[in-house]
Amino acid sequence: MNIFALILIALSALSALSVSLTCVAQAESPKQPNILLIVADDMGYSDLGCFGGEIDTPSIDRLANEGVRFTNFYVNPMCVVTRTSLLTGHEHSQSNDYQHSFPIARLIKQAGYRTSISGKWHQPKNPLDWGFDSFYGFLKGEINGWKGTYSDGKTLAIQTDRNSPTAVPQGWYCSDAFTDHTIQQIDQSIEEGKPFFAYLPFNAPHGPLHAPKENVEKYYGRFDEGWDALRKKRMQRMLTMGLIDSRYQSNQPEAEVCVWDELPASVRQLESRRFCAYAAMVDRMDQNIGRLISHLEEKGELANTIVIFFSDNGGNYSHGSIHDYEREVPWSANGPRPACATGWARLMNSPYSWYKTSSFRGGVSSPLIIRWPGKKTLSPGSIMKQLIHVSDLYPTLLEVVGETYPAQDDERSLKPLYGNSILPVLNDPSQAKFAVREEIFWGFKDTTKGLLNRDWKISSINDSPWKLFNLESDPAESVDLANDHPTKVFEMNQRWYQFANEQTEMDNGWKRPLRDDWQGWGLHRLQMTMPVTSISPACSALDVPLNTSLDISFSEPISFANTNGKTIRLYSVDQPAKPVWQSDPAETHPANRTRKLSFALPKLKPGTTYYLLSDNGWIHFGRRSAGGLNDGAYFYRFRTVENARAP
After folding, report:
1. CATH number for 295
2. Which among 27, 211, 243, 286 has the fewest CB atoms less than 10 Å away?
3. pTM above the 0.85 mark?
């Protein structure tokens, strides 16, 4: 054999060895994990069975049992701003409509993933502009769950990719359709041999409360005890499950939440049925998640899929019209907008108080579940209590896919990330509560402000004075410590405005100094109908004297020209059929052309909740007419002092 033959044999052997080693390396190289990111819309902190709720959620409970639950996870006060933090890693007003952000789908796509979104977008432009390969859903904040239209009931909402919105087929239902599309996109990823990033932002259980009849009727009778009794039972279950402890004390709600036993029996039955519709939306969403999990199992992908589930903000307060409650049909595509009362939102957010749009824990606390197969540091079914914000998921997912946040971008001036990766605590769950972060900032219009710094937290709504809480001793925010610790309030107030001025681009109207008087929940709803600056008794006030007047201040001169026959009326919640007082001010009223209006009220009953209704156009502001006050969507309530003695 000559030298050339020996050389050829050696080269052949080396080639075979190289191929063999390559195959071994490929076999040993782990696959990139798939990522399934599921977001509920307006679901309360403790609605899920695995967080103590009464609703049947076996599929999500399975994710919790096979994964971990976080009990100290915070989002933002509204759906749109939470989604900004999720997809950019920034506090939403830092991002400024993505002008200073690099949306996460672009980076995940860059890592070799196929990216899809199925459901609600509610962010700037179109998802395809920001790195998603496919989009099926709607661009704005709310749809009719049966018709796929926006809130006017006529404008088509559902679109595929960049196509114009089209009418949905007969029998279409939102949660089912969004899950179908997610499954299709997962299958497409498998066919292409790519890992998937599937973002499934349900619009459930956001209003209108649309759900199939069989899902709604399943719950008839389950909530008849009412929100007061059910909240106590839910908190006891949470205590037994180890989600809360003895430090969590339920506080007295302000007057926007009616006392259940004070409502007439007919109203209690109506409200119980309305919450059945809400529960049915959560139930149907859970069924679809179960269908998705089963599909991943069938495809052999579940063992390599990280599943993340949370809600975009706390449970929602009441919407809809009080005049339409009895005509609401959740399984009908037509008719009034089904909704449920604020008392149910208090139940949804147990053990916390307040609701969506507020920086109190009821508005910004969310259940977070992460199921990560093969992550041996995570004990299935365990509960983790580290402080985390929704913006922290962005850098975490970048680490998972092996990408880093870019130092610069040719299209925009990037800001440093607000979020911090939670991988360190996933790798070592024993890490301290503040291992990921120590501070969270909230600001949304003039509706709410808030700041959490380690165990201290301040919150304000309607630019009212700060309330101060110590979450180490009082995690449910039941005791306001502002009067006891004025220095702490001052320090945190300074920090809030420093962050707002130096690290965000929020409008100056969002950064106004706080007012001197406390105006509770309903003020921002009143201001949707007329330019109210202050009202007395204050919105949501408790312990209002039986002898009181109704005083309203406006930012513009008022007029009663051409308002004859249009009235403003006061009702007690125990007698909703007949007003206890009403007025039809004429143009000769002394307040005409002024900015202050005062009405003498009759003597009120003790321990009773009252609310206002009015006709459209009962008062004018220049050429504009005020919208009618509505105890469903635009409510003003207060409660009189208990056990008051008659003079």
Report:
1. 3.40.720.10
2. 27
3. yes
